[in-house]
Amino acid sequence: MKKGENFINKLREKITIKDVSRMPEEQITVTVDRSDLPEAVRMLYYDMGGWLVTMIPNDERPLNGNYAVYYVLSMEGGKMTADDELSSDEKCWITVKAYIPANDPTYPSVTRLVPAAVWYEREAYDMLGLVAEGLPDPRRLVVSDDWPEGLYPMRKDSMEYNFRPDPYSHEEEPEYEFYHPEGEGLVDVPLGPLHITSDEPGHFRLYCEGDQIIDADYRLFYQHRGMEKLAENRMNYDQMGFLAERVCGICGYAHATACIEAAERAIDMEIPRRAQALRIINQEIERLHSHMLNIGLACEVTGNINAFMHIFRIREFSMELAQLISGGRKTYGNVVVGGMRRDVNGKEIRRGLELLDTMETQLKEVWEAVMEDDSQIERWKGVGVLDRQVARDFSPVGPNVRGSGFKRDTRYDHPFDFHDEIDFEVCYEEGGDVFARETVRYKELLQSISIIRQCFELMPSGDIVAPHNRKIVPQAYALANNEAPRGENIHWIMHGGSQKVYRWRCRAATYNNWPTLRYQFRGNTIADAALIVCSMDPCYSCTDRVTVVDVKSKKSKILTHKDLKRYSQTLKDSPLKGM
Amino acid sequence: MKLLDMTRKYGSATYEYPFAPYTVADGFRGKPEYDYDKCIGCTACGVACPSNAINVELNEAKDKLVWKFDCGRCIYCGRCDEVCPTNAVMLGSDFETAVKFNKEDLIETGELDVEYCQKCGKVFTTKRLIAYCVENFKKVGWSERVIEEKTKYITTCPECKKAESVELVSKHYSKGVKK
Q1: CB atoms within 10 A of CB A578
Q2: Site from A341, A344, A350, A364 to mutate, B interface, most B CB atoms within 10 angstroms
Q3: Same domain, residue pair A338 and A442
Q4: Where are the beta strands (DSSP E) in B46-127?
Q5: How far apart are CA A41 and CA B171, in angstroms?
Q6: Among candidates B110, B119, B132, which has minimal Cα distance to B65?
Q7: B13 neighbourhood in chain A, CB within 8 Å
């Protein structure tokens, strides 16, 4: 029996399957009628242990006259208990595809049965005008509030990629509707548009009773750059990898690799083993500096500046390692379709190993010191708990889900590149709080160091670029996965004609993590809000002020960045006093 | 307290930079350095550049080929370094690329003399590219006659070459060609 056949047979019992295709082998696409879509996704998600990794709305009118939606599930088992996991030869990707006629662009919402789909379906409306009937939250997600009605940027015929609609004047700009909880005496605390720890834009509304957060809502995507549209209109594959790198300023390398690997997998291209090992080395270097940055910030936001400085001092070694291996302080500009552009030599490896040793010893020292600091642990423990059931419902990724005791790591579930030769442990912690997430990150740092050492040792010699003997096949598609420091990145590529991409869907790790944040906020104090967002390690960009509005008395107060930061570091003299 | 002990143990970690120079690793990918004397104007770097930092175009008067590099657009990938046949563009180790107030200072240019087609007299390439090719012909060891023939060929613009080929073909196979 072929991989994934058992899932399809189970699906057949209840649902008529129109077509099954495999492209590539372990990625199965099942086409169903759009009315069967929610049930099919639900069965795969809850009954057979799938996790929603991405959803791709696609304008296929030039190809077959329809729109299409692809719900991609990673079949790996529910993981709610220790033995609730599929064996490694059963794990695969299943894509549920449904066509949506062009004259009636609606489909039944999957979100009612599988909450994880909520952001994807909101985005599908913004970008392509596909209406999910019965979607509980139909507000705008990606496009700005003053974006013209009825202009759907990702439709092939809607607009040029460089078209800029006229902005509204400030007075006429429509308001985004935040969801308010009901109740007496609630204080509405907007946090943002820029966030305190990450210096990136995102607007949070915290609904507080006293200092306690009752509920939260948020508006993001202030930095939407329209990269997908840009890539399919004017980029070729040489440029796309470099564009994908710019999705993120920290984990860009993981995006580039995922993007390029999706293009490679779609045409079934094997890259040399040495190039695979080099890709992993660069990725793990990225994880080293990203995790250290996050642990450092989690200390800083709670006022432990000393630990923050020490961790950043050690982080500098990882930057030096990056410089050595990739030629830049960021590991950018190295991946191309077919392999890598830069090889390493013996001298670099020797120096690299020295740096790894220094990093390992000093990291252990700092972590030990932080662990002995009770006041630090107290700020981390029990804060921002991600409930296991919430995690199961929303498919979060990375240290966020591993901190809640799920053994979910795409390097382990769907090994790619050189990972089949490498021994590594999936680090996970019970508890689901900030403490658990930071512990997972610390353990992963040690794992990364070990992975880089193994790669240096096991790396075969030879070419780093595959021979040029493959052609791009139009309409061939594949997805590629990659474990970025924040969780798995999924890129999906459908090739087009003339060496260009037809559709590129890039799903960053944090996209799956945001929807759970609301649940993590509940019951915590506003002094911890910044810490909770920080511990999720979000990828977005922070403002200098926070406005506090008292719903009852209609009083408002502007808190400066300094005020809130001081309050979250010292926990003294609440800035809300006297409201 | 342990953290304070560590501070004493490791001492100051701050670099002296910018008061003392910061040394980068060998093979660091810094700002591309342009050697005007080596450049032959083949435009390979302009084609390879993924972010359009390098543009090679004729100037308005159409008498010079202008190699133009905008450091503000550069992503330091080093594609230009890879494709350059004469090593005129190579990545250096310079990372201090900030300019004061004037964005124009980020732009670097080099003007190359152009060659005209020996038949129609239109601009089509640079003098240096022709010289580079001729020099390589000599290295191959061809006879004077062949070199002369080849040189004539490469100093003809693509348009004239096309016309010439058509003429040649129709001369030998005049039967099927309607006049």
Answers
A1: 7
A2: A341
A3: yes
A4: 54-58, 64-70, 89-91, 107-116, 123-126
A5: 69
A6: B110
A7: 313, 316
Among candidate residues A133, A156, A187, the one where a domain is terminated: A133
Scanning the structure block, which residue is given the tokens 């996790």? A51
Alpha-carbon distance B17 to nearest alpha carbon in chain A (angstroms):
14
Q: How many CB atoms lie within 10 A of CB A199?
A: 13
- pTM (two decimals): 0.88
pLDDT at site A181:
77
Q: For A226-251, what is each residue's pLDDT tens digit?
A: 888 888 878 888 888 898 888 888 88
Q: How far is CA B156 from the centre of its chain?
A: 22
Find the CATH number of the domain harbouring B59: 3.30.70.20
Tell if the CB–CB gap between B48 and A365 is shorter than 8 Å: no
Q: Average pLDDT, stretch A511-540? A: 82
With tokens 């009901």, the residue in question is A182
- Per-residue model confidence as pLDDT tens digits over A58-99: 999 999 999 999 999 999 988 888 788 888 888 999 999 999
Q: Is the pLDDT of residue B20 over 70?
A: yes
Rounded Cα–Cα distance for residues A537 and A535 (Å): 5
Residues 15-54 of chain B with CB under 8 A from chain A are 24-25, 27-29, 48, 50-51
Chain-centroid distance of CA A83 in Å reads 26
The reply to whether residue B6 touches residue A242, judged by beta carbons under 8 angstroms, is no
Question: What is the per-residue pLDDT across A365-393, written as a single tens digit (0 to 9) for each?
Answer: 999 999 998 888 988 998 889 999 999 99
For residue A256, being part of any structural domain is answered with no
From the list A353, A362, A281, the residue with the least C-alpha distance to A314 is A362
* CB pair distance less than 8 Å for B78 and A307: no
Residue B3 included in any domain = no
- Given the structure tokens 């450091």, which residue do they identify? B71
- Residue A488 domain-assigned (yes or no): no
Q: Please indicate, yes or no, if residue A260 is contained in any of the structural domains.
A: no
Q: In what order do the strands lie in the sheet with A17-22?
A: A17-22, A27-32, A92-101, A66-75, A50-60
Strand ranges in A38-178 using DSSP code E only, listed in sequence order: 50-60, 66-75, 92-101, 106-108, 131-133
Cα(A114)–Cα(A135) distance, integer angstroms: 11
Domain total for chain A? 3
Write phi, then psi, for A106 (nearest 5 degrees). -130, 155
The whole-angstrom separation of Cα A96 and Cα A105 is 18
Handedness of CA A142, A148, A149, A152 (dihedral sign): negative
CA distance B48 to chain A (A): 8
Residue A205 lies in a domain: no
In a domain, B59, yes or no: yes
Q: For the purposes of burial, counting CB atoms within 10 Å of the CB of A382, is it exposed (0-12), middle (13-18) or buried (19 or more)?
A: middle
* Nearest of B43, B98, B100, B110 to residue B72 by alpha carbon: B98
Using a CB–CB cutoff of 8 Å, tell me whether A230 touches chain B.
no
